[in-house]
Design brief:
Blueprint: H1 10-48, H2 59-79, H3 85-112, H4 140-145, H5 153-160, H6 164-170, H7 174-182, E1 217-218, E2 231-232, H8 233-248, E3 253-258, H9 263-285, E4 299-306, E5 308-309, H10 319-327, E6 333-337, H11 342-345, E7 350-356, H12 359-367, H13 373-376
Antiparallel strand pairs: 1-2, 3-4, 4-5, 4-7, 6-7
Helix pairs in contact: 1-2, 1-3, 5-6, 7-12
This protein binds zinc ion.
Residues 294, 299, 301, 353 line the site of zinc ion (ZN).
Amino acid sequence: MTVPGPPRPPESRRAARVLREEAARRARAGADRRARVGTESHDRTLAGDPSRSGAHRTRPAQAHGARSSSASAGSAPARHVRPTRRGRAAVTVFVAAGLLFAGIPALTSLTAGSASGPEAGSAKLFAVPPHIDALPVPTFEQATTSTDICGESSVRAALEAGDDSAAIAAAGGGEAFRAAVATGAASCVDLADPSRIWVVVNKRRPYAPVDYRPAALMLPDGVRSVEGGSLRSDAAAALTSMVTAARDAGVGEIALESGFRSYETQQGSYGRQVAARGVEGADQVSARPGFSEHQSGLAGDVVACAGACGTLDDLAATAQGAWVAGHSWEYGWIVRYVDGGTDVTGYLGEPWHLRYIGPDLARAYHEGGWTSLEEFFGLPAAPDYG
Ligand SMILES: [Zn+2]
């Protein structure tokens, strides 16, 4: 300072001295605190250093003790400069003023939010709680999804007895069963079990074991089987009912072109498709061995016949094809692969490929307007083999 200011009144000088003393005391206390912090962090470094040998492991505690005593000695002077009562009053004023001036920018930063936002310049000096439009209210849906259908002893008993229809009925019917599975409230229902009518097989869900073979296969009674194909007994009976109903309705004959295919059979058919179309082309029309619905005995390819039978591709344009699309669900069947569903099912539309899921689930599928089993049961899409 080169130019002395005007003489200050005694009150001002006293206040200035108090402030200087307080600043000096805080500086000493700060230096003491920094010394102690440095000691502790150094100890942590020693203790956490894995390169240290076992002989050195006891050193941090010894060093810490030694440094603690020196730190205590270092803090002793700070205790000797306790301020007087008048000094304490001045310190209180000093601290309060400091809090006020330090607090304003802190509050400003709290209320201003991001400084880069368009409202950064219109900061308020108080914090505003976030606006809440409405308090969250538990919904009925949340309450019901927490009830697992497997808590019902009748559901478990039906499953143990191998009676899929009874299990669905005990769960409250096809839609209730579907909803429970899709929302994770059916812990005892295994969509990978190929012996169940609700099994889902696709390009991401192969059989386990991969060469699974159903127990009871039979030719459907009263149905022409073009290639001698068989179906699981429950699916065979349901196909007989469907074909009989179509004939009784006057739409003509429906025949089974292809039913159960073993793992070995699928190896041959898929291999022929690969030879003709390449892997990419084959994967769009034929399942790899271990991934075909036909291996479950629950899938059948049907054709229309008028004396001779047409091809699979001919079906859609026939009266039988239209009837199958509209009525097969009444007998427990669904058209598994529809046009436009390739992103989910992994297959182009196949109006001839029917899958038996039983009348209860087929009704829920039809009435819900579902177009894939994956979506029906809340499973991920299976556009490819992953
Ligand atoms: Zn098929």
